Amino acid sequence: MDYAYTTTSTADALKISAPTLIFYIALAVFSFVCMWKIFDKAKEPGWAAIVPFYNLYIEFKIAFGNGWYFLFMLIPFVNIVFAIMLPFKLAKKFGKGVGFGFGLLFLSTIFQAILAFGSAEYQE
What we know:
With 124 residues, the protein is mostly helical.
């Protein structure tokens, strides 16, 4: 059997994948901007949003009061519990309720944007 690829099929694949890639890159950049603003509101360094692992440390520091709780994310099964608790604690720290916590859990980018650009204030 001949499995030769034609330029037409490659071009068709690029038509689909290029816009999708651009969309996901734009979504990631927007998410970083939202995290940066949230960190700024919590009086933490905004640039921490773009540093892997450190951003998780800062997010746990904001939500739980102790950043070292992020190490629980390295323990199987325990990480699921903390990953579910994090958005609710974060919502509470910004004066939001349980419904907003569910929003952060399931539609994180949208609700992070509401936290970042809305009137929510960080409550220590």
